[in-house]
Amino acid sequence: MAKALDGVRILDFTHVQSGPTCTQLLAWFGADVIKVERAGAGDITREQLRDIPDVDSLYFTMLNHNKRSITIDTKHPEGKQVLEALIRKCDVLVENFAPGALDRMGFSWERIQELNPRMIVASVKGFGPGPYEDCKVYENVAQCAGGAASTTGFDDGPPVVTGAQIGDSGTGLHLALGIVTALYQRTHTGRGQRVLAAMQDGVLNLCRVKLRDQQRLDRTGVMKEYPQYPNGTFGEAVPRAGNASGGGQPGWILKCKGWETDPNAYIYFITQAPVWAKICNVIGKEEWATDPAYATAPARLPRLKEIFAEIERWTMTKTKFEAMQILNKHDIPCGPILSMKEIAEEPSLRKTGTIVEVDHPKRGKYLSVGNPIKLSDSPTDVKRSPLLGEHTDEVMAELGYSTEQITALRTAGAI
Ligand SMILES: CC(C)(COP(=O)(O)OP(=O)(O)OC[C@H]1O[C@@H](n2cnc3c(N)ncnc32)[C@H](O)[C@@H]1OP(=O)(O)O)[C@@H](O)C(=O)NCCC(=O)NCCS
């Protein structure tokens, strides 16, 4: 079956997590993604956090499905020529090198435009133009600089980073959208353009509600859905809100049966206003549905701590799945805290292809996260990541190099 991005060729100059997330998505949508790696070494993640000696790590395999790998020394004069041939042939160059690395290699925007004016050059950088633009950046640096860490955690503790890779994978997602948008614009203009997704910007975009709250705080000095109200104090900046929900419906994480031994025996419980009477019935506090001190959402705000403690007395009598079943029957929004083990074993996620089992010639079978974006006319078929340089000869032949030329370039160390 045809794929949405059939015919689009991506020169994938990415490494680690942010860039590879982006190009993996494009590959899943059908683009031909040619990953250029350093001869002999490859993407550094091939050897990071290895669980099997001398076998590409899960870090690498889970971020580089459906790509082809070619090894080129792009600082070797003849290697540069191969890269030039690729630039002429491809639609998009995606890179997430340290600032200036592509220029130092001799491939400035101007030079790339000379070679291929239709080329879209897409980059992940840590920061956009400004005081930090030259910095190298990793995930947690972006989480801190983008506002996520200062707003995550509990009020009486330090800033906390989140397990969701919003700096790396989040920015890769942003970049992918930029690329398909630029490809669409090119259909009208015939021109390529530069696409930049800075990790600080990507994280901030995902923290948009916290900038909303900063302005509410500036104006009123208090935010009633935050746990600091009415018992604590607000400072000048948006505080860490623990597990309070980011929206207008108060929520919290509550213990369930077994919490003493199972670190994930918890449920997220939302006291959504329209189902308040049902919540009161379920937890056996029917009187709260009519008592003016509890019956309305504004009346409940100063009492949230007491209310959640009462609800927790009920959730602690149920497992998170039992509680989920009962609450869902009444349309009371809630969510079990699922461990990675539970997610890996969840049959419905396997069925939809969100969790896939992939076979790899060196590591055997492993689990990966499939394409989370489902297109009805462009199904995703997850294929294993390439071995280092696995497609060098194939891609070189497509570029017009003869077997003799390929051998000579290999002997010279250019590929
Ligand atoms: C992630 C990051 C910190 C890693 O830094 P690093 O390991 O030092 O790697 P760099 O990107 O600086 O690249 C190292 C060098 O390898 C060179 N190189 C890369 N591929 C090459 C190839 N195929 N052949 C020859 N040289 C190559 C680069 O040209 C660069 O050389 P230079 O420093 O002489 O200019 C940095 O790339 C970065 O800040 N990227 C942007 C933000 C980002 O994506 N961060 C998240 C990563 S998940």
Tag the structure with descriptive keywords.
formyl-coa transferase, domain 3; six-stranded parallel β-sheet; binds coenzyme A; 11 strands; 2 domains; elongated; 415 residues; Rossmann fold; alpha/beta
Q: How would you characterize this protein structure?
A:
It is an enzyme of class 2 (transferase). Homodimer. It holds the Pfam family CoA_transf_3. CoA binds at residues 17-18, 38, 96-98, 104, 136-139. The protein is of the alpha/beta class and 415 residues long. It has two domains: 9-205 and 346-412, Rossmann fold (3-Layer(aba) Sandwich), CATH 3.40.50.10540; 251-332, formyl-coa transferase, domain 3 (2-Layer Sandwich). The chain contains 17 helices and eleven strands. It has helices at residues 18-28, 58-61, 77-89, 101-104, 109-115, 139-145, 169-189, 199-206, 208-220, 276-283, 297-300, 304-315, 320-329, 340-344, 347-351, 392-398, 403-412, and strands at 9-13, 32-37, 67-71, 92-95, 120-125, 194-198, 251-255, 266-270, 334-336, 355-360, 364-369. A six-stranded parallel beta sheet has the order 3-2-1-4-5-6, sandwiched between helices. A three-stranded antiparallel beta sheet has the order 7-8-9, with helices on one face. The mean pLDDT is 97.
